[in-house]
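Troubleshooting log. The previous structure file for this entry was overwritten by mistake, so regenerating from the original sequence record. Sequence copied from the archived sheet and checked twice against the printout by T.R.
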Amino acid sequence: MKIENLLSKLKANGKSAINISKITEKHLENNKITKYEPEDFKLEVTTAWSFPRRGNWATHRGDYRGNWAPEIPRNLILRYSGKGDVVLDPFVGSGTTLIECKLLDRKGFGIDINPEAIKLAKKRLEFPRLHPEKQELKIGDARDLSFLKQNSIDLICAHPPYADAIQYTQGIDGDLSFIKNVEEFESEMCKVAKESLRVLKPGKYCAVLIGDIRRQKRVIPVGFKVMQSFLDAGFILKEIIIKQQHNMTTTGLWRNQSEKYNFLLLAHEYLFVFEKPDK
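Regenerated output below.
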């Protein structure tokens, strides 16, 4: 078995992850909220971030494949925006970023090409808050934000697909997670970067979480390619944060395959923070 096929098979064996094309009523049920804030939360102050859990406050659940830990948007929102600001997530998925926007009194705007993801995100935003900012969700494409005005967004928090590492739909036209050719994926992410630059206010920030992939036992630096796409669009690089991955075990089957096929498990992602120039 080719190593890339083996890795895909192993990734597909996650028992707790939602297949977003097969959402059931069970997935749409919100757990009873026992707390609205994370315990012992502290703002990150270094460029190395590690969040072993996927959040256990409000309506956060870690059952959406590829979702990011809610501590990530919480850190970004608190550090790079103020109360009442407009925060855009162009790959909103199950709504993690907008849940944090609602908790932190920001106006969230979430976009996803998958109608099922929007349906799930809307359900998870159904919890009470005193005088909350309005959260909006829209089926759309991150490469075309023409419905948003230029210089209208205060912060962008984006977690795009890592090329075709995980497919998020049954093959919806325009789904970036079905692009196997890395050069084509980079080209499409250039469109995302240009639209992000257009809608973001000058002097404001755009954060992108992205990881690399492996093919034929060799690393494909998708992260750095996407970083370059945003730089080419006109952004300035402010921070490179290394985020540790915790959804991959280093024992048992994975460890044995790593030794057998002589490859290292990718256990990190990049969180790039870009700034739009004032001029």
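Residues 182-199 form the longest helix (18 residues). Archived copy saved in two places this time.
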